[in-house]
Amino acid sequence: MxxxxxxVTGGSGFLGSSVVPGLVAGGHDVVSADVRDPARPTPGATxxxxxxxxxxxxxxxxxxxxxxxxxxxxxxxxxxxxSDRARERxxxxxxxxxxxxxxxxxxxxRVVVSSSGAAYGYHxxxxxxxTEEHPLRGNVEFAYADHKRQVEEMLAAERERTPGLEQVxxxxxxxxxxxxxxxxxxxxxxxxxxxxxxxxxxxVLVWDEDVVRVVLAAVTSPVTGVFNVAGEGTVGxxxxxxxxxRRTLVVPEPLLRGALAVGRRLxxxxxxxxxxxxxxxxxxxxxxxxxxLGVEVAPTREVLRRYAEVRxx
Length: 313
Fold this sequence. Notes:
Blueprint: E1 5-9, H1 16-25, E2 29-34, E3 46-49, H2 55-65, E4 69-72, H3 85-105, E5 110-116, H4 143-161, E6 166-172, E7 174-176, H5 183-187, E8 192-196, E9 205-207, H6 208-220, E10 225-229, H7 237-244, E11 247-251, H8 253-265, H9 275-280, H10 300-311
Parallel strand pairs: 1-2, 1-4, 2-3, 4-5, 5-6, 6-10, 7-9, 8-11
């Protein structure tokens, strides 16, 4: 297939810094847009400053470069110090609105959006596994899950409003890789890995390079729609601990909830008592629909094995 002009939001971020060179290598004309400059600019790509929370900036960049496809990766997955709910919403939700409006205004043909399995929410009554037809409930108490639910509702409304704008929406599971640093990997970095008493806490995992290949395929594939992105199967906390050479620390949920409540009040931790829900009720994704995109992703256990090889002490 001929190369296309692609604008990548969040092009200097974790996924973007791999997606951008992958698109360039595929012969595409790539504009990488981010609020910050890339650590290592990709030769052959055009790098521009763009804050998705600023409507006029998004409008200007899309209008100036006239991409055929927009890959929208800009999001706040792991908030840094000083972040707040308003800023996270401005990027995740308002930023997506600005991107969609600019796509409609300037005749963009396709938009590829990185969503998350978190959009289903962390709920005890989630079906196992979750398919793309199951409702998105998010969790109000978790900004990321709540915002991804709102984004997907916005995308569904846009499909009705602008049927000519093709959409590929990727609900991505827990990403692992050699350079991944997120809320989950931090939980696994100490001597002990926390396990809630009586909770299965199944994880579905996907290797970061596989996610990049899925995004690249979504740019050129004739297929549109919503896709769960995760390796087949699940792993529990005991298996994760064994693979990483750690021990498990089993804690009753009420005890952990109380400790987190006290710790947050005293400023000892950024996490509150709601985190027990995040740990106990992991969304298990069925990613069998990925096959039409023509990309095979490693099973969850293989992802854990790869991660253990690079992280085990």
